[in-house]
Amino acid sequence: MKEIKVYKKNKFNAEIEVVPDKSITHRAVMLASISCGCSEIQNFSESKDCWSTINAFKNLGVKIEKNKNVLTVYGIGMYGLQQPTKEIDAGNSGTTVRLLSGILAGNEIEVTIVGDESLSKRPMKRIIEPLSLMGAKITAKQENFLPLKILGTKQLKPLTWISELSSAQVKSCILFAGMYANGETVYQEPVKSRDHTERMMKLLNLPIEVYDRRIVIKGKVNKIEPFKIKIPGDISAASYFIAMCLLSKDSNVIIRDVCINPTRMGFVNTLLKMGAQINITNYRIEYNEPVGDIIVKSSKLRSIKIEPEDVPSMIDELPLLAVIATQCDGVTEITGAKELRVKETDRIKAITLELQKMDAKIIERPDGMIIMGNTKLKPAIVDSYGDHRIAMSLAVAGSIIDAETIIKNSDCVDISFPGFWELYNSI
Length: 427
What we know:
- By secondary structure, the protein is of the alpha/beta class.
- The chain has two domains: 22-217, Enolpyruvate transferase domain (UDP-n-acetylglucosamine1-carboxyvinyl-transferase, Chain, Alpha-beta prism); 260-271 and 300-426, Enolpyruvate transferase domain (UDP-n-acetylglucosamine1-carboxyvinyl-transferase, Chain).
- 29% of the residues lie in helices and 26% in strands.
- The protein has twelve helices and 23 strands.
- It has helices at 22-33, 48-59, 94-104, 125-134, 168-178, 196-203, 235-247, 266-273, 318-325, 347-357, 388-398, 420-426, and strands spanning 3-6, 13-17, 38-42, 63-67, 70-74, 88-89, 110-114, 137-141, 145-151, 160-162, 184-188, 208-211, 214-218, 228-230, 252-259, 277-286, 289-297, 305-306, 331-334, 362-365, 368-372, 381-383, 405-408.
- The strands form six sheets. The protein has a four-stranded mixed β-sheet with strand order 2-15-17-16. Strands 4-5-3-14 form a four-stranded mixed β-sheet, covered by helices on one side.
- Helix 2 (48-59) runs parallel beside helix 3, helix 7 (235-247) runs parallel beside helix 11 (388-398) and helix 9 packs parallel to helix 11.
- The longest helix is centred in the middle third of the chain and has 13 residues, at 235-247.
C-alpha cells in the first residue's frame, strides 16, 4: 500500500478533463454484452471497478477487445451467457455484483461471485430478497454477504418491489432481471436515485416507462440491438477539483465534457446554495445523458443542513462535503446518510476520525455528521482505509493546509479515478 505527500494549492487557473463516468460505463458494458451483435463503447472508464465488470463478462463467454480508449463488445444475446470455469471476482465493485446478479437471474447457469475484503462486508440481502421472489436461487454467507451463488432461470416471475432504499444499484438489478421476467416488473423508491439505467434502456428502445420514482419494465425482451456510445466525464470525479478550486484563493477551473445528469447534481446544487460560483456552459444531450462544461471560481461558502431527501443524489460526495464544511461560515449538519456506513468503509467514521487528526471540529452521528466551520486545518498523517472516496477527500483537505499532509493507502484511488494523483499534482 502506497502513501503520498500532498501540499497546499496556491492560486491556480486550469482547464481539465476528468475520467469517463464509471456508472455509465458499467451499464454500457453489461447491456452490450447481452446485445445481439458488435457494440462500441468510446471513452470508457478504465477504473478498477469497471475492469471488474469487463472481466466478469469475459469469463461469461463475451468477447471484449480494447483499442486505445475504445471498447468493442461482441454481444452474445440475452440468453447467451456461458457457464464460467471459475468464480467471478467482482473486486471492490458493488455495482458489478449487484447489477450482474440481475442479469444472471435470467440465465440458466450457476455462477459464484466473490469480492475483496471490503466488498465481502457489504450487504447483499437487498438484492437477494427480490431476485429470490422472482425465482432465482441464491445462497450467500449469512444470507447477506459474498460469496453469492446464483442459479438463474428462464422462468423469472415479474415483481412489484417497493424499496425502502433509494439505491440505483438495487433498482438496476431489479430492472435488469425484469427484462427476463414473464410480465411487467415494477420498482418504486422513496427518493429518486441516479437514473443512468433507465436512460440507457430508453436509448436502446427497451420497453421501459418511468413515472418519477416508479419504473415499469415489460419482460421477455427478445433482443437488444448493438449500439455505439461515448461516455462523458464523471461528475463524482469532477467534484474533487470543484472543491479544490472553491477552497483555494483566487483560483479558477474549467472541467470539460462532464455528465450533468440531474440525479447526480446534488453536490453541485448544494454548493450553489452555500454560495459557490459555479456555472455550466456548452450544455447538450449526448446518448440520452446531459453533458456540459463546469466553470468554477473560488468562493466564500456558508454552512448548510443536509436532509435525508438530499442524500441519494450526492451520496458519494458527502465525505468531501465534510471537508468543505470545515471552511464554511457556521455549522453544517448532515443527516439521513446511514448508507455511508456500508460503503467501501464506514465513511462517516473514517472521514470523522481523519479530519479530527487535522484538527477539524467534527462530531460523528449515527446517520451523519456535525461540522464546525472556519477551522484552520493542520498537517497530519491520515489514512484512506483503502477507500478511494476518503483518499480523494483527504487530498482536497491537504490542498488548503500550509504544510505537508501524508495520505496512507493512497493507491486505492484507481478503483474509480486512475490518474487522479497525476492530475492533482499538475494543478
